[in-house]
Amino acid sequence: MIDTNLERRGDVWWMAFGPQETKNHRSVDIPLPAALTNRLERYLHHYRPLLTRRAHSPLAGGAFWISSGGRPLTAKMVGQRVSAVTKRELGQALNPHLFRKIIPTELALHDPSRIGVAQPLLGHATYRTTEQAYNLGRTLDAVQRLHRTIQSIRGRASQESTP
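Structure (tokenized):
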């Protein structure tokens, strides 16, 4: 909700959720990256008002996500939209929860020195939860090593069978 979960504090937009709104019952209060400010404000000041005017009666209230018909989107509807857009744009539907796995996995693979940011970002009490449930980097690394081993074995077998 705008002005409840999404707040402008000075020049920075913040996401804020009380303990009753989170899975682990811990408050979340984090600034959004400055790179999102212009896009966020464009949505809030241009696109969202256009969408809310489409409703027959003012139903949107402070809801952030608005349908093309001007009504607030439920969490399920947002998930369906994310899956549909990723399917269209990437050829593979990605549900919002999968993005939670992408964050620590990408950090582990491409910026391991910063993997520690994943734990607070995902709201985990310990890094162990992040590592066990979300970081697929080790799994992907193991699969790549297995693939190279199989390719090597196939290459040797091919060379041995060549007369």
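Residues 22 and 122 are 11 Å apart (CA to CA). The chain has six helices and three strands.
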